[in-house]
Amino acid sequence: MKGQRTERLIRTVCRFLTTPSRQISLTALSNDFGVSKTVISDDVVLIDSALTQEGLGGIQVDRGRTGGASFIPSMSENVKGQLFLEIKDLLSQEDRILPGGLIYYSDILFNPYYASRLGLIMATYFQATKPDIVMTTEVKGIPLGLFTAHALGVPLAVCRFRNRPSDGSAVAVHFPTKTGEVRAMYMGTKQLERGSRVLIVDDFMRGGSTAAGMLLVAKEFGAEVCGIGVFLASAEPEIKAVSDYTALFSLKSMGKSTPEVAF
């Protein structure tokens, strides 16, 4: 089905953007569009240039026997900075302060416009670690975890705070919180394969106990944690249960009227 180049380019871009970090066969594209691989290769070069200029990432071509190409998300500093400023303004609004030193942000993480872009940024930070799976906890961590997993081209595993029959058999770990309470966390045995490389993504970190719990889950499965990414981390307490993590935003303090947020 040979068509005009403009149509072919648009359709090829659609395939790359809907399957990020997954290889697409150039031979298959050549056969689908009825053109030579040389023509497809020229298309890929043009698409790579356009995506790079948009600050979204680029196309990585495998010159080996497979002859495939992948869209690798990598948000530019300029595009990231504009988004961060927009989200910082939202987080700094007066009505976001909640009792107990908490801040309201559910409307941001459950908005696909923001969550998809934040997932792209998180994937940009951890692309080089080559995770096999992203792990998060219910509930607010799920949107960011899912969009991060999508950008990385890997599945998402969700830790739950109570076991559900629909999850099948599960592994349970117990972890202490900063208040001294001991909580349970469950991971279905079908969700996480032993020996996997795991990227932990969480929505909020205060003392780091939830992230520490996910570290214990990974340990129970014999999995290797290759990174921890957090949407918003509180500056207090300074010493947390986990020390090595990357936070997109930092909650510096809760003033009398507005939160102080930095990135």
TrEMBL record:
Phosphoribosyltransferase domain ranges (all copies): 121-250
Name the CDD domains for this protein.
Answer: PRTases_typeI
UniProt GO MF annotations: DNA binding; glycosyltransferase activity
One GO biological process term is: regulation of DNA-templated transcription
| Keyword annotations of the record | Glycosyltransferase, Transferase
| Highest taxon of the lineage | Bacteria
User: Where would I find the Bacterial purine repressor N-terminal domain in this sequence?
Assistant: 4-73
Pfam families linked: Pribosyltran, PuR_N
Acetylation among keywords = no
Protein name as catalogued? Phosphoribosyltransferase
The organism is Aminobacterium colombiense (strain DSM 12261 / ALA-1)
